[in-house]
Each structure stands twice: as C-alpha cells, then as structure tokens.
Amino acid sequence: HVQLVESGGGSVQAGGSLRLSCAGSGYASGGYCMGWFRQTPGNGRERVATIYSDGSTSYADSVKGRFTISKDNAKNTLYLRMDSLKPEDTDTYYCARGVTNIPCVYRYWGQGTQVTVS
Known about the structure:
Blueprint: E1 3-7, E2 10-12, E3 18-25, E4 34-40, E5 44-51, E6 57-59, E7 67-72, E8 77-82, E9 91-98, E10 106-109, E11 113-117
C-alpha cells in the first residue's frame, strides 16, 4: 500500500526558508518521478517541482531560483528546499508519486503540509 507523508511546514517571515520532506512507503525507492504541488482556487493543484527517475528536475516559473527539489533513494524520502519565501507562497503543499516518467503522470498523493509566509 503506497503512502506519502509530508512534514516540515510552518510559519515564516518573508525572505525566510523551509525544507519540506515527504516520506514514502509501500514501494521500492527510485524508478519513479515525484513532484511537489500546491493548491489553486477551485480545488485544483499547481505543479511546483518535479524530479525524474534519472535525477533531472523541472520547476514552475514562479519558484525557479528559489526552490530546490531533491530525493534520497536510500531513505525513500523526497525534499523541497524553499528559500526566499514570499507571502504568495502561502499554501498547502502536497507531494506526489508518478507512474510514468515522460511525462510524469501522478497517481499517489500525500495529505499535505501547511506553509504560511507573512
């Protein structure tokens, strides 16, 4: 049974930093694309960052240069380092695991962790 659990959210001042973590279980490490998302109006989700099975990455324009996605396959954990945070980054952040690589089609989702920037 695939499970994803986010942690590391919190409240920070503008310009501050956070590191989000996503602990995966129920599947073997590596071999899958993974991503971070945040909510949009209308109950949708916006892709923030993706990391592919080969380690390559992709970012939304709004976070390029500020956020860094990475993973530790040995720990089966996904990370999102968030620097130079802005009030507009305030949101609930979700991690997700894909079932294909190119493109990454997401199938499994965590419950989310709240980030508040003031």
